[in-house]
Amino acid sequence: MTTADTSSTASPIAWADPARAQAFDAWLDGLRAEHGLLPETVRAASADASFRRYFRIDTAAGASLIAMDAPPDKEDCRPFVAVDRLLAAGGVNVPTIHAWDEAQGFMLLSDLGAHTFLSTLDMTELDHHPGRPNRQRYTAALAELLRIQAVPADSLPPYDDALLQRELDLLPQWYFTQLRGQVLSDADRTMLDHTFALIKAECLAQPVGFVHRDFHSRNLMVDPTDPTARPGVIDFQDAVRGPLTYDLVSLLRDAYVIWDEDIQLDHAVRHWEAARKAGLPLSDDFGEFWRQFEWMGLQRHLKVLGIFARLAIRDGKRQYLGDIPRVWTFAHRVASRYQGLGPLARLLEQAEAAHGGTQTQVGYTF
């Protein structure tokens, strides 16, 4: 059970606060009869980049549920609950909330499975063949994304200029300065201000809708035996109303895997066709849509460079440093491709040259 339960046959769960461990045990015990819980089976399921932790617990019916621990002084679960209900009403495959103790920050959820989309990808060969499992998995994921994008987004906060700017500001603060030790000159900062303004203008001019904001291979739960099955969608609490290219680029230019650009293009054009057929307000020219995709991806990847640097430096989560080369590659390619972004590409090159150099990656890797 928890570290306070020495009779447990499951792996012990580490709790920094014994009082919270006792509160969690008492909360689970109160739900035992209603949901057929077997508290002695509680074990760690996963943790994420926030302060939330997840535990799996078996039931007498032979199924399992997920218990979430989200300390209320560090995590506000209300957005998660609101967005979960919104997506569920739209037919998206999200967890069912069985119980929620808002005051204590505990939640009992349906279990969407133990296998992430990323963990089931076949990394042994390039997947150009339409019948292979990787393509089927991406097809299923993009079909679920289309369901998300069809959900009304009027109640969501806007992905506005201020939010885009806060995200971009993470790049100079955490990636350039804290992680790479660069001393940014006044000219560098002026260039970044100008470049950020260009990026924001491009993003804010795009068609908008429901944006999950973290729709990628670690936030989709899948059936490892059936690549055509609908994935389960998690980690959607930061959803906003914003550019409809955002979630597509999150998946196709994932921070955790790189596919060759022809594969990205093939999935993107298929999604663009399906989305337009579904009535989403996308450009009727794929070339323009792809351009929007790239600019939105640049904003996301610059933000992620800052976030991964912050996670490593401030939060001690050094594992994210291993993902920076992929993110850097995506950002650098786009910055090298479009007029007005050359100075940003050169500053990115300088950051990695001082670090020893990031080799631009091709193909796909973990």
TrEMBL record:
SUPFAM superfamilies: Protein kinase-like (PK-like) (SSF56112)
InterPro entries in alphabetical order: Aminoglycoside_PTrfase, Kinase-like_dom_sf
Domain Aminoglycoside phosphotransferase residue range list: 41-276
Pfam families noted in UniProt: APH
Protein name according to UniProt: Aminoglycoside phosphotransferase domain-containing protein
Organism annotation: Aquabacterium commune
Phylogenetic lineage: Bacteria, Pseudomonadati, Pseudomonadota, Betaproteobacteria, Burkholderiales
